[in-house]
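Field log, afternoon session.

UNIT: design team B
ACTIVITY: writing a sequence onto a fixed backbone
BACKBONE:
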């Protein structure tokens, strides 16, 4: 019984440390704005970066409120790592990232159907330089302003 007491004390101490670590991890996280393009849809949200070189992402579509993505970020070297995104509708994407600073970076990868890009910690103007935005449709000219095609002079009677 006496040999069991030190083992039990160590186990309780370690369990307490794990609970403290989980709580302080959230307190010591850094929040940053995040932007992404997944399957041609633009997303906006937050990245939370932790001191253990991991992070989480929560993104919502700017075009459809029911389109959400969540993800995990993990460093694999000093300035690089991987992000795994899971989006509503069964769309998953893997991206490789480069950290620009301790609280900002950009990532590129793909889903099953298209290229994917993501930034965090950058303002919208900076983020736009890294994001692969979907092509915009050509502007539609109002019918009242449209010029009829020129008729060649040889075609008139």
């Amino acid at each position: 019984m006496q040999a069991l007491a030190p083992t039990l004390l160590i186990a309780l101490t370690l369990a307490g440390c794990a609970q403290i670590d989980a709580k302080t991890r959230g307190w010591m996280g850094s929040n940053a704005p995040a932007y992404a393009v997944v399957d041609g849809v633009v997303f906006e949200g937050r990245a939370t970066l932790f001191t253990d070189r991991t992070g989480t992402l929560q993104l919502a579509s700017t075009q459809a409120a029911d389109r959400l993505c969540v993800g995990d970020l993990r460093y694999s070297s000093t300035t690089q790592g991987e992000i795994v995104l899971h989006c509503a509708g069964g769309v998953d994407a893997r991206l490789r990232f480069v950290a620009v600073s301790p609280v900002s970076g950009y990532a590129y990868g793909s889903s099953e159907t298209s290229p994917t890009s993501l930034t965090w910690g950058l303002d919208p103007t900076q983020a736009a330089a890294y994001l692969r935005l979907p092509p915009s449709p050509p502007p539609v000219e109002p019918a009242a302003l449209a010029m009829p095609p020129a008729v060649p002079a040889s075609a008139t009677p």
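LOG NOTE: The CA atoms of residues 110 and 116 lie 5 Å apart.
NEXT ACTIVITY: expression trials, pending approval
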